[in-house]
Design a protein that fits this description.
The chain is mostly helical. It has seven helices and no strands. The termini are far apart.
Length: 169
Amino acid sequence: MAAAEPSVALDGIFRLHHDWLRRWLRPQMTHAHLAEDIAAETMLRLITIAARQTIVEPRAVMTVIARRLMSDLRAKDIVRLQYAAAVAHLPPALEPSAEDRLIILEALRRIERVLRPVSAKARTAFLLSQIDGLRHAEIAERLGISVSMTRKHIAAVMQRCYQEFQDDE
């Protein structure tokens, strides 16, 4: 294969499918600019994939990528709204500054990203341990699992958190 072929194939995919992708996204998004942003990010990710492998069904790949991006966007919105609701109840003297809010929101997004692929029981065990301060035996009873399984779940999530946040130090 000639070296120019992948870029020609990507150009063809872009020309044939980018408008389709934007039209497909628009009804699913609250704002047209979000559909444009997701379409652009989808194309960037498609280029990354195409550099490693041949894309046989571009629209199927683009749909999967776009759905994941929309899911990520919705998860970020949920975290932002939940944080805003929690902060709204604080007295003015305890309200975090705008900078602190951004730092907290980014940390919450990262935690959400870490917890998203984890099983529901592992995620619940971790949150009950870290946020509610429950002991392993209490968590095990509440979830209907053994104490050793509770420890394994919490340890696995802690390991994921450590890997995510180790570069910050």
